[in-house]
Amino acid sequence: MSAGAIKRSGGGRRSRRGRRAMSEINVTPMVDVMLVLLIIFMVAAPLLSVGVPLELPQTDANPLPQTEEEPLTVQMAADGSIFVQNVAVPPENLIATLRAVAAERTDDRVYLRADKAIPYGRVMEVMGALNGGGFRSIGLVTDPAEGGPK
After folding, report:
1. How far is the CA of 61 from the CAs of 22, 35, 66, in angstroms?
2. Taking a C-beta distance cutoff of 8 angstroms, is the pair 98, 136 a contact?
3. Is 72 in contact with 109 (CB distance < 8 Å)?
4. Which residues of the chain carry a pLDDT beneath 50?
5. pTM of the prediction?
């Protein structure tokens, strides 16, 4: 018998138990986690678009048809603050802001959401500012009446 070192066939590092170390990455668990995160974000994204809390008046009017471009929305809160697309705008800067927005848009339609506690005269002032800002088609947004359209 010879007393020499026995050379094992095959390359790579070997662990203590004689098995080869795994040099591959299993991506299946990562893909599973990414798909679960994608579903969570798809469900949660619509819930994150929060508007200004308003108590709109109720009417029996039918809704207006929608267009491809996202409609411009001006909101008047009960405390008198004015929001253009959920961004607060001081009343003295309203016309300048509307003119800047109108220059970038192709549609001159705007939706006005005003809390029912706002005086009618104040709503008309903002409608005049909308007209002065370049918007000719102004829609007043209301909540549907309890019984629906008649």
Report:
1. 68, 43, 15
2. no
3. yes
4. none
5. 0.53
